[in-house]
Each structure stands twice: as C-alpha cells, then as structure tokens.
Amino acid sequence: MAGQRTTQVTERRTRVDWAHFVQMLLLTVYPLAKKVVLVMDNLNTHGIASLYEAFAPEMALALANRLEIHYTPKHGSWLNMAETELSVLSRQCLDRRIDDRDLMAREIAAWQTARDAANATINWQFRTADARIKLKRLYPSFGV
Q1: Cβ of 73: how many Cβ atoms within 10 Å?
Q2: Is the pTM of this model over 0.90?
Q3: Residue 33 region, left (φ>0) first, then alpha (ψ -120 to 50), else beta?
Q4: What is the pLDDT of residues 76-93, one digit of tens each?
Q5: How many CB atoms lie within 10 A of CB 32?
Q6: Which of 2, 8, 42 is nearest to 28 (CA)?
Q7: 43-83 pLDDT, tens per residue?
Q8: Contacts for 79-85 with beta carbons within 8 Å, 24 or more apart?
Q9: DSSP code per residue over the chain
C-alpha cells in the first residue's frame, strides 16, 4: 500500500524458505515495527509452524509475536493485493523464459527498484459492500 515491495528469489518455495523471508522482513525491512500485518494466501507453507521448523523456539516465538496474519479466502486470492502485484511482475518482467537464477534475481531486483521509484501502488476499489454482493455465498445470511 506504500508503493514499496520486497522480493526474494529462492530455489524452491518451502516452509523454511518462507520462514527465512519473514525473518528478513521483520529484522531488516521492518526492524522497528512492533507488529507487521501480513495478508497472505492459504498456502500450506505460510504459517507460524514454519517459523518453528526453521528456527529455535525462542526465535520463532519472537518472530511470531511481531506478526498479525490475515489469510485471504481460499477461493478469493484475487482479493490479495500481493497477487495483483505478482501479476504485474509476471507481465512486466517475467514474460519470457529465464533459466538462470542469478539473472532472474537481477531482473526482479531491477523491476522492484523501478516500481518502487515510481511509487507504484494499487488503486484498490473493491470494498466491503461490494464483497457482500459479489461474495454473498461466503457471508452468513440472517433471516429478518
């Protein structure tokens, strides 16, 4: 929402990879923040248990205590601004085959730098009232 993004290229997308990325976010990108709000999809690697798999219990707890996690609906990942940003990345940077991890990392870093410099943000116009109409099957209905 601030027009800044943080990217990282890894070999795989494992629980430990996710945990290390979260650690980097908390200790490097947002070292002074008491709480960091993460809006994420429901991928099985994205969870507090991953921190405990990657780090000693004390470190995992310290990291977990600084997180406020909000999961997007299972069938509503399109509601996630990060998914929208990944779509932009795919169209603007990854629209070709890149078979070298280092080249991929450089390309994504260049894209991120340019997008951050432009202070590019997403003009999110989908509001709660819209969600109640579009996603009415996901909201409880109380007979009046």
Answers
A1: 14
A2: no
A3: beta
A4: 655 567 778 888 888 998
A5: 4
A6: 8
A7: 788 889 999 999 999 999 999 999 998 887 766 655 567 77
A8: 79/126, 79/131, 80/39, 80/40, 80/41, 81/1, 81/39, 81/122, 81/124, 82/39, 82/40, 83/41, 84/122, 85/5, 85/122
A9: --S-------SS--HHHHHHHHHHIIIIISTT-S-EEEEE---TT-SHHHHHHHS-HHHHHHHHHTEEEEEPPTT-GGG-HHHHHHHHHHHHT-SS----HHHHHHHHHHHHHHHHHTT--------HHHHHHHTGGGS-----
Residue type at position 32: L
The closest alpha carbon to 26, from 15, 38, 44, 40, belongs to 38
Determine the Cα–Cα distance for residues 19 and 8; give it in Å rounded to an integer: 12
Provide the greatest CA pair distance for the chain: 60
Is the Cα torsion angle 13, 71, 110, 18 positive or negative in sign? negative
Q: Tokens 């999961």 — which residue?
A: 71
